Amino acid sequence: MTTQIKKRKKIVKNLKSKFRFVVLNDQTFEERFSLRLSPMNIIVFGGTIGLSLITITLYLIAFTPLREYIPGYSDVTMRRNLVSMTLRADSLTYKMSAQDRYIAHIMEVMNDNITSVRPQRDSLAAPLYDSIKKLTSSVDDSLLRMQIESGDRYELSSVKEKSFSSGIGSYSFFCPLKGAVTTKFNITQKHFGIDIVAGPNEVIKSVLDGTVLIANWTSETGYVIGVQHSNNLFTLYKHNSALLKSVGDYVKAGEVLAIIGNTGEYSSGPHLHLELWYNGSPVNPLDYMNF
Q1: Is the sign of the CA dihedral 28, 30, 35, 38 positive or negative?
Q2: I need a labelling partner for 235 at 20 to 30 A (CA). Which of 70, 98, 132, 223 fits?
Q3: Alpha-carbon torsion (80, 85, 90, 91), positive or negative
Q4: Is the C-alpha dihedral spanning 163, 166, 172, 177 positive or negative?
Q5: Model pTM?
Q6: In terms of Cα–Cα distance, which of 257, 223, 217, 228 is closest to 240?
Q7: Mapping DSSP to helix (H, G, I), strand (E, B) and coil, where does residue 203 land?
Q8: Region 197-212: what's the mean pLDDT?
Q9: What CA dihedral angle connects 73, 79, 83 and 89, to 10 degrees?
Q10: Tens digit of pLDDT for each residue in 77-89?
Q11: Cα separations in angstroms, 94 against 91, 100, 146, 180, 239
């Protein structure tokens, strides 16, 4: 035990022993440079340099394009293309599945092969209807019903008259996205809308009430959603990162449609490309909305 302690003390003493590193002129033996070192200093200095080299190497591999030249790492462009192709394949698979279901239902209708569904509905409906008690309405309830129905008819007719007799200037548009307009409407350059830049993951809202007519993916404009409004008004929202509504959905003004993104070949950064069409012609959204 004492021998081991002595060996350890000797090793520690040797590590702490000071040595002088001297650089001499070979002809005149003049001392040019000297450095006082110990084995412990050399170990610490070498370890620090080695750790620094490892850190720099890891940084270059992880955060710079140099990793493309290292075997085993794929090209960034290739990975981006693979992600885009995967999204397209997933979208095509979903559309093909929906088309197959639609064709299967059409074939069942054409072959009159829907009898298996009808007895189940009738068997469920019979006991439910038999258990319902017949209710008689009171005089007050009848008067209230007549008052509400007459009011509804009056309101619907007034809205209908207003929507068809007035132009686009009578609408109060909801701002779809608060941000900075970077590219304005220019019909001569075939830029039929405006580009709005905002923060990441900002939601895009419908400018008016309407029905979703388009909700798909294109290679040029990425995820696109279009809403048909009354009085021949149509709005188009391009370059989204995700769509939150489907074709046929009815949306209210201010309801969220999508998430801002940077999808499509024509996109150079996260933004919204908004187009406003009236009677089949593009109009400048800046004339009717404040961003």
Answers
A1: positive
A2: 98
A3: positive
A4: positive
A5: 0.45
A6: 223
A7: strand
A8: 93
A9: -90
A10: 777 788 888 888 8
A11: 5, 10, 48, 35, 20
